[in-house]
Amino acid sequence: MANSNERNGRIIVAIVGVILVSALGYFVVKSYQQGEQNEENVARIDELNTEILELEDDIKSFKQTIEDQSLALEEKDILLAGKDKELQTLRDRLNRLKKSGQAKTKEFEETISQLEYRINDLQNTVTSYRAQVKELESENLELTVKVDSLADVGAQLEQDKADLTKSNEDKQNQLDMAAVLKAAEFRFISVSKKGKEKEEKSFRKGALDDLKVCFTLMENPVAVPGPREIYMVYENPDNTVTTNTEGSYSGTFTHDGKTLNYSAKATVAYNRLSKEVCITYARPEADKYQKGNQYISIYCDGSVIGRSYFEIR
Asked: Quick one: which of 258, 252, 254, 249 has its CA closest to 287?
């Protein structure tokens, strides 16, 4: 019986020994594995710390990029989005470190907290930069609206100026037209070689010697007073202008940029009141009057101021 108990005791001791050896081996292996994991995590923390340092320097210098007025706001948005993506990548890696199997020592917890604080601080900086860009976008939009508004005001002012100019031109044209003298109440008089005068509307061909054309310059309160050159153009029935170059009757003048012949002229002192004007024309001896309607046109200040006709039968 004693032998049996002794044997059983040895068996129990052996089993306990095996269990102890196995447990010791497990803890040794586990400790070794934990050590390797800790070394790997330390390396990952160092790598993460280095990348955060680089990003801190990069974001610190990024302020100049944000303030660069030559860079479009859209490009700044793209660059900031890139920084957001880099920060999110660092945050994901930090979260994986926090969930790793490393023992939560005070040193580890402090290191993780510091890294997390720095990442959050960088995120706040990027967020402030983004706010600046948004503010610039808002200011640009407001400025664009103001510029467009000023452009509209400028365009309206230009249009008003053009309308005013046209209105003034129209008024000036109306004034110029109103200032043009008018010749009316034509009378046609045959003057014989002896100076005898006879007024007719229709003359016999042989009865017409020199021709005196009389008309009234009508009253015009807006016309400029002063001397006026009055030109008479005498057109034959065949539309040719009859002239007398042998005497001092005929010559040329300019009308609408063209040089025209006149048959006779007179200088008149105009004082805005109605005034009768008479111009005498002596046809050269060699010229013969043509039968038919004879047309008289009166020019002054570059305008035709009156027309009439008489007949030679």
From this structure: 249
Q: Are 206 and 190 contacting, i.e. CB atoms less than 8 angstroms apart?
A: no
How far is the C-alpha of 45 from the C-alpha of 56, rounded, in Å?
16
pLDDT at 25 over 70: no
State the pLDDT at residue 108: 79
Work out the pLDDT band at 33, boundaries 50, 70, 90.
Answer: very low
Half-sphere exposure of 103 (CA within 13 A, CB side): 10
Domain covering 183-312, topology: Immunoglobulin-like (2.60.40)
Residue with tokens 């993506």: 85
Q: Where are the domains of the chain?
A: 2-146, 183-312
Whether 231 and 203 have beta carbons less than 8 Å apart is answered as no
Torsion sign over Cα 40, 44, 47, 50 = negative
Is the pTM of the predicted complex or chain greater than 0.85?
A: no
